[in-house]
Specification:
heterotrimer; A mainly alpha (about 550); B alpha+beta (about 350); C mainly alpha (about 230); A: about 550 residues; mainly alpha; Cytochrome C Oxidase, Chain A; globular; C: about 230 residues; Four Helix Bundle (Hemerythrin (Met), subunit A); two-stranded antiparallel sheet; 6 helices; 2 strands
């Protein structure tokens, strides 16, 4: 048994190539070769890489739609595409990005790879189920891609009835079924994470010694498990209504379209927390590792995750202030929406306080982390505008909302995902990424992002509606700025794709702990051996104890 | 060129300025908090930049006092925002009693507007609106300085009636009525959009709200006068044979409808309801949902048999009914259903 | 004698058992929400005064549809008894596995499957009958039969949408349960389970009881309530 204790690197924090001798060690990548060894693997680390490939593909697909949207919006008229084509573009952008990238992104790639290692376990509790969820994810992708190729879909990612069940003449069925199938993948992964966190912790690893990434993954998994089944049945009902031609949500037969909105947002608002909570966990890891300090207020950050998970289920009605929902319901939803802002604010303040008197590195993951804190703060605080019913009446369904959720989803989740990917890349592949290129990409993403989405706050309050194929001339200048930003942003996302690939072959070896970070994942080799640890670790210290053994 | 850039909407309704104040308050707090956070972040990042590779700072585990401070102060701030919001929200919801009522029915991809005096206008994707902007003739006239209440519904999918310069929007949901009220403050032309995605020409389903001074508006009304909405409803009332049961006699098979609007009604199950538009509509399309006390459920449901417009006409008629307005049965020549002096001269083609 | 197959990533059989049990409970929680959303829609519509009449009439129709029983949902009641009985034999099977009674385990699993088959058979008969008299929404729904009854045929149809979605989802769960039991029955005969290792039997038991409990809610909500 080894104990986990931290000792800082003595001199050069990043080892040079060749320090670790020729590659003779057996790790999870070189332990087996061939397509079968990947497609039939039950190793959580290999499954994480399978997810990485699939999710990256979906990210670039969704990104391609975004590029086309921005090009069309350069001019007020719908001159590049017919309105019908444009409507498919934004729908498919939304569906691919939310359901196939943002929701599974951090948990399925980083969570799958790290959760068992952070717990000192050899694998997730149900390895075969883990592989099954990847195949279910792929099945969902294929169904959706079939729908996209076979005519596309134009309902908006929200599938609002009765448009989706009566009016849309596009491939709603395969896409709705694809999203429904995907839900099972999320549920199985979440179930696996919860059981693993409960039953597979290493000796001595009590709940309050867990890394915060584990806490936030746990909270996320709870939300996934309680929310996803509802969207599953809702989409089943939409499919039945569309297939059988009966009126479940269609008022022509006594149905209620607003009931659909309640059911949809009961899942889809918590889904926003499914997207952001794991990202917050990543940020807690990055902020501590690159300031070499323990997190400020560990228990507050941990419980903030749980509070977000719980309150997140009680705010769905703030999407429906103008839907004809009871004004008293709107008032309650507004109050809880204001309250749910508090735990997020607590997290931001604790991260900032963690930096105080730290030893702060400017490595790429930290740049992403700082970018995240800034942009998430803007995204979160503009949520206060939307939580206010009278102001929301004006800005809902405008670009203000678009800007708000892109600040949270791109400025938050994707920034954290990129930061986490850079941080754990050496662990996953055994190679460092090229720091200079990575810094350049991080800066491009940050500036490109702000140029893209900040003008959208302005144009939204000025009254430009979302999902508009053509718009009035007054809004053109801000839209041109936005498109210019998007081209920078797109380039910033393409760069990592190139240099990560390059690093697999040419970059220097990383060594077990290139950052001098604490955490069980840094006590094992890079890449880790097939069963993560040679001997089961015993944990005696809380996480992030950088100073204890100095 | 610069004049054409819209950075901020015009302020053209009584509520717009107040919504802007609340918006600026929230945005002010947002900007303050994010600026301070960003400055502190950047300062820490530079001030505490790592000096030596083996540097390990002293740990700080937290501070209950600080945690409480940055939990409670934001809580108070958001509760202030909440209180302010609720106050304003109920002003948006509750229309003044004397508001002019205009019926607006959405359908892919146009809005059909019906003024109480019978004038009709259409906003949206007209054959003449080819590209981008809606047809300039796609207008809806409203008076300035008078509260106007829109009663919205939809014939197909969900739409949303949005006037940025008034800071107001409301979904038009098929199968039910929703309302939106405003009082325009300045004469002018204000853009109106559909805000809920509704298909191919969603972005063209809009037009102009033309706000006019009272006198000018009255002039426009009389130039466009048509048979009144209630008058058309009266014709429906006779055509659909409503009159055969709903006579003016107190001992008829069906309730007397004169003066029914906004009256408190006793139901067979002991409950009471206010006979508002929603109740009147329900009583026509699905009369057995709630049975008036003392009557048998004998009325057939009219769901699907009347168009939304015909329903609106009937409801307008019911609302106009005063004591003695119901004509005797078998009467052939319908007298005006509203007081003759309130009616503009009908246009002769 | 049964031996415990311990997967490589668990430290002890107890840990493995705990993980499996927790996993099944978590899965059942998601199942509650899966059914819960449809239940919610059903209850909201049933409570809606505009739809209420149609729903009540449709629900009465479920009751008196077969064998001429007036106002007694006979088949539903019979199926409830069958399903409760199958839960009883399932509990006996779990108990038999725990005490290592091989023959009782095989017998009770077999009985549970027989009762499950009877349930599905009766359900199939009910569906068939619904088809015959035109109660299948969207495909074979006899709107004319409701003319003059004072209820809106479309509201009756809406009731049957919920009826088929709810009982259909339940039936799918029954089929999955039958498949699980089949596999376990074969493995029990091979002597794979005993006092030391009975986790799969216990999990299948939890699942079976859950499916049973769902029916306990379905039956009164669809068949019995007259308000």
């Amino acid at each position: 048994m080894s104990t986990v204790a931290y000792s800082p690197p003595k001199a050069e924090p990043i080892p040079v190539a060749g320090d670790y001798g020729p590659e003779t060690r057996v790790d999870y990548i070189n332990c087996a070769w061939g397509v079968r060894s990947w497609l039939l693997t039950v190793d959580h680390k290999r499954i994480a890489l399978l997810y990485l490939f699939a999710i990256t593909a979906m990210f670039f697909l969704g990104g391609a739609f975004a590029v086309l949207i921005r090009i069309e919006l350069l001019t007020p008229k719908s001159d590049l595409f017919e309105p019908d084509t444009y409507n498919r573009m934004f729908t498919m952008h939304g569906i691919v990005m939310t359901f196939f990238f943002l929701i599974p992104g951090v948990p399925s790639v980083l969570g799958n790879f790290l959760l068992p290692i952070m717990l000192g376990a050899k694998d997730l509790a149900f390895p075969k189920l883990n592989l099954a969820s990847w195949y279910i994810y792929i099945l969902g992708c294929l169904l959706t891609l079939a729908g996209i190729i076979w005519g596309g879909i134009d309902t908006g990612w929200t599938f609002y009835t009765p448009y989706s069940t009566r009016s849309a003449h596009t491939s709603v069925m395969p896409v709705a079924v694809g999203v429904l199938v995907l839900g099972f993948s999320s549920i199985l992964t979440a179930l696996n994470f919860i059981v693993t966190t409960h039953t597979m912790r290493a000796p001595g690893l009590t709940w309050f010694k867990l890394p915060l990434f584990v806490w936030s993954s746990y909270a996320t998994s709870l939300v996934v498990m309680l929310g996803t089944p509802v969207i599953t049945t809702t989409l089943v009902l939409v499919a039945v209504e569309r297939f059988a031609g009966v009126g479940i949500f269609d008022p022509k037969a006594g149905g209620d379209p607003v009931l659909f909105q309640h059911l949809f947002w009961f899942y889809s608002h918590p889904a926003v927390y499914i997207m952001i909570l794991p990202a917050m966990g990543v940020i807690s890891e990055l902020v501590t590792a690159f300031s070499r300090k323990t997190i400020f207020g560990y228990q507050f950050v941990a419980f903030a995750s749980m509070a977000i998970a719980v309150f997140g289920f009680l705010v769905w009605g703030h999407h429906m202030f103008v839907s004809g929902q009871s004004p008293y319901a709107s008032t309650i939803f507004s109050l809880i929406s204001y309250v749910v802002a508090i735990p997020s604010a607590v997290k931001v303040f604790n991260w900032t306080a963690t930096l105080y008197k730290g030893s702060i590195s400017w490595a790429t993951p930290m740049l992403y982390a700082i970018g995240f804190i800034g942009l998430f703060t803007i995204g979160g605080l503009t949520g206060l505008v939307l939580a206010s019913p009278p102001v929301d009446v004006h800005v809902t369904d405008t670009y203000f909302v678009v800007a708000h959720f892109h600040y949270v989803m791109v400025g938050g989740t994707i920034m954290a995902y990129m930061g986490g990917l850079h941080y754990w890349w050496p662990k996953m592949t055994g190679r460092m990424y090229p720091e200079g290129w990575a810094k350049a990409a991080a800066l491009l993403v940050f500036f490109g992002f702000n140029l893209t989405f900040f003008p959208q706050f302005l144009v939204g309050y000025a009254g430009m509606n979302r999902r508009y194929a053509s718009y009035v001339d007054e809004f053109q200048v801000l839209n041109v700025l936005s498109t210019a930003g998007a081209s920078i942003l797109g380039f910033g996302f393409l760069l990592p794709f190139g240099y990560f690939g390059w690093s697999l072959r040419y970059a220097k070896a990383a060594g077990p702990n290139p950052w001098g970070a604490t955490g069980l994942e840094w006590t094992t080799e890079s890449p880790p051996p097939p069963h993560n640890f040679e001997v089961t670790p015993t944990v005696t210290l809380p996480p992030y104890e950088y100073a204890t053994h100095n | 060129m610069l004049a054409e850039i819209a950075l901020f909407p015009k302020t053209a309704s009584t509520i717009a300025g107040d919504i802007d104040s609340l918006y600026f308050f929230i945005i002010g707090v947002t900007v303050a908090i994010s600026t301070v956070t960003a400055l502190v972040l950047v300062y820490f990042t530079i001030r505490y930049h790592r000096k030596r590779p083996d540097e390990v700072p002293k740990p700080i585990h937290g501070s209950l006092a600080l945690e409480l401070t940055w939990t409670l102060i934001p809580l108070v701030i958001v509760l202030i925002m909440f209180g302010w919001s609720v106050k304003l929200y109920f002003r948006i919801l509750v229309a003044p009693e004397d508001a002019v009522e205009i019926y607006v029915t959405g359908r892919q991809w146009m809005w059909k507007v019906q003024h109480p005096e019978g004038q009709r206008e259409i906003l949206g994707y007209l054959p003449s609106s080819v590209e981008g902007v809606p047809d300039p003739g796609s207008e809806m006239h409203v008076p300035v300085g008078v509260p106007v209440k829109l009663i919205l519904t939809s014939e197909d999918v969900i739409h949303s009636f949005y006037v940025p310069d008034f800071r107001l929007k409301q979904d038009a949901v098929p199968g039910r009525y929703t309302t939106l009220w405003f009082q325009a403050t300045k004469p002018g032309r204000y853009r109106m959009f559909c805000a809920e995605y509704c298909g191919t020409n969603h972005s063209k389903m809009g037009g102009w709200i033309v706000a006019q001074e009272q006198s000018e508006f009255q002039q426009w009304l009389s130039s466009k006068a048509d048979r009144s909405l209630a008058l058309k409803g009266r014709a429906q009332f006779l055509k659909q044979q409503c009159i055969s049961c709903h006579t003016g006699d107190a001992d008829a098979r069906a309730p007397v409808l004169e003066g029914i609007y906004n009256q408190k009604r006793q139901m067979a199950d002991g409950s009471t309801v206010i006979a508002d538009e929603a109740y009147l509509r329900e009583s026509i399309v699905n009369p057995r949902a709630r049975i008036a006390a003392g009557f048998q459920p004998i009325m057939p449901p009219y769901q699907g048999q009347l168009s939304e417009e015909e329903l609106l006409e009937l409801i307008a008629y019911l609302k106009s009914l005063k004591r003695g307005d119901i004509p005797p049965r078998n009467e052939e020549t319908p007298p005006p259903a509203v007081k003759p002096d309130a009616l503009p001269e009908p246009n002769k083609p | 004698m049964a031996t415990v197959p311990l997967a490589h990533h668990f430290r002890t059989p107890a840990q493995q058992h705990h993980a499996a049990l927790l996993g099944m409970w978590m899965f059942l929680i998601t199942e509650v929400l899966l059914f819960g959303a449809v239940f919610l829609g059903y209850v909201v519509y049933r409570a809606n005064p505009a739809l209420h009449g149609g729903f009540v009439a449709a629900s009465e129709h479920l009751g008196q549809s077969v064998f001429g029983f007036e106002h007694v949902p006979f088949l539903g009641a019979f199926n409830t008894v069958i399903l409760l009985g199958s839960s009883f034999t399932m509990a006996l099977a779990v108990r038999a596995a725990q005490v290592g009674n091989q023959s009782s385990l095989v017998r009770n699993l077999g009985l549970t499957m027989i009762l499950g088959t009877i349930f599905l058979g009766i359900k199939a008969y009910e569906y068939h009958h619904d088809w015959d008299i035109g109660l299948i929404p969207g495909f074979k729904f006899d709107k004319a039969a409701w003319a003059g009854t004072g209820v809106d045929a479309r509201h009756v149809e809406l009731f049957f949408v919920f009826y088929f979605v709810l009982t259909g989802l339940h039936a799918i769960h029954m089929f999955i349960g039958m498949g699980l039991l089949g596999v376990l029955w074969v493995r029990s005969r091979m002597g794979r389970f005993g006092r030391e290792y009975y986790t799969p039997i216990e999990l299948a038991g939890l699942y079976w009881h859950f499916v049973d409990v769902v029916w306990i809610f379905l039956y009164p909500l669809l068949y019995l309530i007259r308000h």
